[in-house]
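Case study 2.
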Amino acid sequence: MRLALLRSSLLLCLVLGLLTSGCDLGTSSARDSAQGPLGAGGYGNAGHSGSAGSSVGGGITTSGPSVPVTFSMKGTNLAGAEFGSNLPGMYDIDYTYPTHAEVDYFVGKGMTALRMPFAWERLQPALSASLDATEQARVDDFVSYATGKGAYVILDPHNYARYQSDAATGPVLIGAAGGPTNADFADLWSRLAALYAANDHVVFGLMNEPHDIGLGAWLTAANSAIDAIRAAGATNLILVPGTNWTGAASWTDSNTGMLGTIDPLDHYVFEVHQYNDSDSSGNHSTCVSATIGSERLQNFTEWLSENGKQAVLGEFDGPNNDTCLSALDDMLNFIDAHTDSWVGWTYWAAGPWWGPQPATDGSIIEPSGGTDAPQMPILVKHLP
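Prediction:
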């Protein structure tokens, strides 16, 4: 994880990086290759205000302890709506949406949270313009069914802080030349907030894994989106990621400035991702050790406790081998022991288009032929 280098660079990052878009420390802490069987577009390797707080590098004022979230969200990602390299693409050819049957299966297992990744470009084909009516209806169908079953639905624009206006240019960072502005990002969330303000089981996950964007630039974008959500009258819980792939293990080296998050209602938690392979990418089927899960969450959890904050583990996995399954159980045991800091988790992943998993090393938990995945008994024992 290059921690020595990261720590030696942190002071410079805090002084300069918060003011620019050029400070991004560390390695990928979640999948940095195409997500899902068809890829993920061009993105792969792609009511309280709190205390006045203090300031960190760059003169940014930080928030004090937050009002604790008292409910728990534990479940899985249901991937599919973000799939495909063709944007916007054709429904059921380039991408799909999770099904009612999947909701029934996972809720039936006791899961209380379903994270639904989607492509920003499909739901909003033009920046700061109306949402596509057909795509909105697909999102509405899933949200209505899942929340009707009592689950929390986490809406997740799976865009890595980018938007692709045309294939020739490819995805462009929020705030970069030719890319979406902070106002464009806020517009997306203003529209979603207006749609789901009346449903407290809809959770707003601001963005999947921002990376190669400076902490200051991302913090400004995130706060713009939060302002828009609250201005729309929505009181829903908001999940706020950091930059640098929002990795838990690297958070205290690159994301402590996210204490500058400002929510007028103080109803947010941080979202982090963490995989247990050698480089924290989730691209390998082997894990460092049976205890690497708790070890990689330790420093971040201490930071949460010290600052009166909470988090959700939005992505993690456990390939089907002894070491990785032990690491998965170890990670969830750690979260169970720190419920003051952890609101919940969503496993990566399930979804209707994942193919059959290999006999060993597969990590997907979509049931096959009526048979539970090997990870399910471990996940189930950590459910509410």
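DSSP finds ten helices and twelve strands in the chain.
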